[in-house]
Write a structure and sequence with these properties.
The chain is mainly α and about 70 residues long. The protein has 2 helices and no strands. The longest helix is centred in the C-terminal third of the chain and has 41 residues, at about 25-65.
Length: about 70
């Protein structure tokens, strides 16, 4: 019984998370890791916006062609 209690106490203490970042990285390191992901996301948003504009222009051309 003592061993089960000790094992559960140790496992709960290991999962406490009060020691800061769980992976041991400082917030500066995680920002460096996330920077390329943010840049890729911004690039993807730009591509999406370009595609939407092209789609709108194409739909406008189709509408004008149907109207004539």
């Amino acid at each position: 019984m003592k061993y089960i209690l000790l094992a559960s106490l140790l496992s709960l203490a290991a999962c406490d998370g009060s020691s800061g970042n769980a992976s041991g990285n400082s917030s500066g390191d995680s920002a460096k890791i996330a920077a390329p992901q943010r840049a890729a996301l911004e690039k993807a948003k730009g591509v999406d916006q370009t595609l939407q504009q092209a789609n709108e222009a194409e739909q406008k051309k189709i509408s004008e062609a149907e109207g004539k």
